[in-house]
Amino acid sequence: MVWQCRSEGSHWGSASVQLALLLLLSQEDYNLMQRNSLSGKIPLSLTNLGNISKFELFRNKLFCESSTYFLTNWTKLTSLQIYGNTFSGIIPPEIGQLTKLEYLYLYQNNFSGSIPSDIGNLKVLFGLDLSTYKLSGPIPPTIGNLHNLSVIALYQLTGTIPPEIGNLTSLTTLYLNINHLHGELPYTLSNLQKLMQCLIGEIPKIFADLASLVHLKLFFDDNVLLRPQFSVFCLCL
User: Fold this and answer.
1) Which of 138, 176, 197, 220 is the S-S candidate for 159 at Cβ 3.0 to 4.6 Å?
2) What InterPro entries would the database entry show (predicted)?
């Protein structure tokens, strides 16, 4: 059963009440779409939905500190999209147990801490957006295990770009522009022959080898990578 609510003008009030009602209606697929004006705390009773395959509650006013209970029970999830809310806490290592996950969109929330290396277990992941401003720490090298990944966006991270990122040969979009990275870009980026959009903060010579690249935007920001002589550069091939 798929439960969808798409109206953008409705006001549903307390999440604890409304989501508890939906527990009675759905035992397989939990798919609330955007801007339903849902508010309140996500009830832990949702962990009982062991057969859930999609959890999409984006652009509401929901909050909940990250809990391992959701992740350990929701191992059938293919889509976890909760962006545009006020969820907080760390991204727990148990995220690596969601091995069927294809979409992980957590941006525009209040998640903090580092990205767990266990994220490298999500081998079928297609889209990854963790562009939230409270994350910290390095880009985990295990991200190079995500060979199916097409889109990746990471914000506020430190350290260097791991050479393993060159393993993401299905990548078409790479956003690393709002970070505190340093050092040289790994030459393995030249392996990303399908890359079409890249925001990263400098003009590396290796992009000359990327035949599919259509737009390359480079910005001055907090990256400590080599700076270009101009702020925006678009390359059309």
Assistant:
1) 138
2) At_inactive_RLKs (IPR050994), LRR_dom_sf (IPR032675), LRR_R13L4/SHOC2-like (IPR055414)
Among 117, 175, 172, residue whose Cα is nearest residue 149 = 172
pLDDT tens for 195-231 read: 988 877 555 566 667 777 776 665 544 444 433 332 3
Give every CB contact of residue 73 below 8 A, 6+ residues apart in sequence.
47, 48, 49, 50
Domains along the chain?
A: 1-136 (3.80.10.10), 145-237 (3.80.10.10)
In the predicted model, residues of the chain with pLDDT beneath 50 are 1-17, 20-21, 24-25, 27-28, 32-34, 220-237
pTM across the whole model: 0.74
Q: What pLDDT, on the 0 to 100 scale, is given for residue 150?
A: 97
Nearest to 114 by CA among 139, 86, 142: 139
Name the nearest CA neighbour of 44 among 78, 80, 20, 77. 20
Structural contact between residues 131 and 105, judged by C-beta atoms closer than 8 angstroms:
no
Q: In whole angstroms, what is the distance from residue 51 CA to residue 57 CA? A: 17
What is the identity of the amino acid at 122?
L
Structure tokens at 133: 């401003």
Please give the Cα distance from 222 to 108 (Å, whole number).
Answer: 19
Rounded CA Rg of the chain: 19
136 contacts 114 by C-beta, under 8 angstroms: yes
CB atoms within 10 A of CB 157: 20
